[in-house]
Design brief:
Strand order of the largest sheet: 11-10-3-4-9-8-7-6-12
Number of strands: 12
Order of helices and strands: EEHEHEEEEEEEEHEH
Helix content: 10-25%
Strand content: 25-35%
Shape: globular
Length: about 190
């Protein structure tokens, strides 16, 4: 695998790529949390209940948007929640990120890629539901170690400043967030 791995929104107006070397440094996970499910449902995607949302965790400097960056839109499920980026042209959910560029983290939906199998194996699962018990995690230690290693490298090298999602001078996201009301969020997470 030497060619960039290309991703795109459903209509193709926003597209980009990830280099194979970045994919090797990434962490592919399945997230079963209510919020990841809510984002999928909000955008009219199939319900991931039981399967989880397939994500590739990277640093933002590892993701290049080749065209359509003007379509980036932002959703938050609560005032302090994760940033949930989507394509305004067609409503495709794209990325999750933390709220500040100095916290270099991006999770790219694996479904955006033509061949998600090229992203490597799933090495962790988060928030796996257990009836009558708190959710469990599998592979959390490995996921956390890889995340910390990537973040430290980005801080030490200054690569955290290379992000398609934030204006570095102001620290502000490149889109104003739509923040769901409590009732809107509750409607999406009902039945969890």
């Amino acid at each position: 695998m030497s060619a960039p791995l290309r991703f795109a929104c459903a209509c193709g107006s926003l597209c980009g790529h990830v280099e194979p070397t970045s994919v090797k440094q990434g962490t592919r996970i399945l997230c079963h949390c209510a919020d990841c499910r809510a984002v999928e449902l909000y955008h009219g995607c199939p319900d991931p209940k039981g399967t989880g949302v397939d994500l590739l965790q990277l640093n933002p400097d590892m993701v290049t948007i080749d065209q359509g960056a003007e379509h980036l839109q932002l959703l938050k499920l609560s005032p302090k929640g994760l940033l949930r980026w989507y394509a305004g042209c067609c409503g495709t959910p794209l990325f999750n990120s933390l709220g500040k560029p100095k916290l270099p983290f991006i999770a790219v939906r694996s479904a955006l890629f033509d061949d998600p199998d090229q992203l490597g194996k799933v090495i962790a699962q988060a928030f796996i539901p257990q009836p009558g018990k708190p959710p469990k995690h599998e592979g959390a230690a490995r996921m956390t170690m890889k995340l910390a290693s990537r973040m430290i490298s980005a801080w030490a090298s200054g690569r955290w400043r290379q992000t398609p999602l934030f204006d570095i001078d102001s620290g502000a996201p490149k889109a104003d967030p739509l923040i769901l009301t409590k009732s809107e969020r509750r409607a999406l997470t009902a039945g969890e």
